[in-house]
Description:
Blueprint: E1 6-11, E2 14-19, H1 30-45, E3 51-56, H2 67-70, H3 75-78, H4 83-92, E4 97-101, E5 105-106, H5 108-115, E6 118-122, E7 126-128, H6 139-145, H7 151-160, E8 164-165, H8 166-171, E9 177-179, H9 184-195, H10 200-211, H11 218-234, H12 236-246
Parallel strand pairs: 2-3, 3-4, 4-6, 5-7, 6-9
Antiparallel strand pairs: 1-2, 7-8
Amino acid sequence: MADELVHYAVDRGIAEITLDSPHNRNALSAQLRRELRAHLSGAIADEAVRVIVLGHTGTVFCSGMDLKESRGAGADAQGVNEFPAILEDIWTSPKPVVAKIAGPARAGGVGIIAACDIAVATHESSFAFTEVRIGVVPAVISVTVLPRLLPRAAHELFLTGEKFDAARAAAIGLINSAVAADALESEVRRYTDMLALGGPTALAATKAMLRRSPASGLGEDFADMLELSAEHFASAEGQEGIRAFAEKRPASWVPPAG
């Protein structure tokens, strides 16, 4: 039986999903894709999980598709038809997903980072859309990457395949924060602690709101948002949050300090 390539652990409401295939730079092999999707589904279904952190072992976050498996293969064997489901699971997860990056990310690996709600990388991390340099198109990952990037940067980096550092990744919107290697864990914890303060239903609804396409007119947009706001003000979670604020205590969903 093959060794597990993706590990899963839950501690105080934080699910850690860790890519552990350093022998091929955490490439998106068929086994890794299968295990990653299974763990994402498990974290999303687990009511005890509040936030998902996606990290890695080794010096590389993810090098993209496993090109050894893709050589001479059709679209299905490359995972082209399977990989979008992973990106969609992350993008539409009702629970916030945080990427923890301590090394290079390329191609599909960058697509995964873009699908996450928040991404933190070390200064030593680097990124590139290398597809054009091997004669293919960064098509699938564009669905998650393009909403994040400044348009000029997207044109430049998709067309040239040039490597760029974490500082630029933050400047163009790919990641939220670039930190020293010894500050990565604390910066990720800072975000997960803040995310855990949000009501689970409110977080899921806010994520859905952020993904929505605007209505055809401003009046319709305001009407839709007024309805959404009223629904959550009146909900059990909303009323509990209001009471907790008035009583100067943590809301019932806030994990105990530890």
